[in-house]
Specification:
It is a single chain. This protein is α/β, with parallel strands linked by helices and 167 residues long. It is built from seven helices and five strands. A five-stranded mixed sheet has the order 1-2-3-4-5, sandwiched between helices. Helix 5 packs antiparallel against helix 6 and helix 6 packs antiparallel against helix 7. The longest helix has 15 residues. It starts with a helix and ends with a helix.
């Protein structure tokens, strides 16, 4: 935590993927340890790549608006709320409004393992190239949409190379 905070203070961009796995955290009252850890991380992160379902589990958020309102006070500059088949929401807290980026429906979902990581890879590839938030989210949605059509966390290169060649 100290290293990440030190890097952030030196101007290094810090991206945070919560990747919440309940079995990996102490089962204490209202996820106290998770909340404390995530709050500290968010206070110096530039961008948070979060899954709305996880935010509901950890914080009890009733809506994406309530999650974004809470996150606005966290210190993080930008947030992506991943919404599964509905796409995602992007919010830059220096801007006035949310961006909703839909995704192309996938007819045959085989396994959602690694969907979030795939989204993050697509999104961050665009982010590092200074693409617009819409383009970054579209990349994330597109890559995740391909990955969920395969079993397991590691899909064949051939499945994604037509997409990743454009990155």
């Amino acid at each position: 935590m100290k290293l990440l905070k030190s890097l952030a203070e030196k101007g290094v961009t810090i991206a945070f993927d919560s990747n919440f796995r309940p079995a990996l955290w102490p089962q204490n009252e209202e996820w106290e340890t998770v909340r404390k850890t995530y709050s500290e991380l968010l206070s110096f992160c530039d961008i948070a790549l979060l899954t709305f379902d996880d935010e509901q589990d950890i914080w009890g958020d009733k809506s994406t608006d309530s999650a974004l309102a809470r996150l606005a006070d966290s210190g993080v500059s930008k947030v992506v709320l991943k919404l599964g088949a509905e796409g995602c929401l992007f919010r830059d807290f220096s801007q006035a409004e949310n961006l909703t980026i839909s995704t192309t429906p996938v007819e045959k979902v085989v396994d959602t393992t690694s969907a979030g990581d795939s989204f993050n890879a697509g999104f961050l590839s665009g982010y590092m190239q200074a693409l617009s938030p819409e383009e970054c989210c579209a990349r994330g949605n597109q890559l995740a949409g391909v990955v969920i059509q395969h079993k397991g966390a590691i899909v064949p290169n051939a499945a994604t190379e037509t997409i990743t060649k454009t990155f």
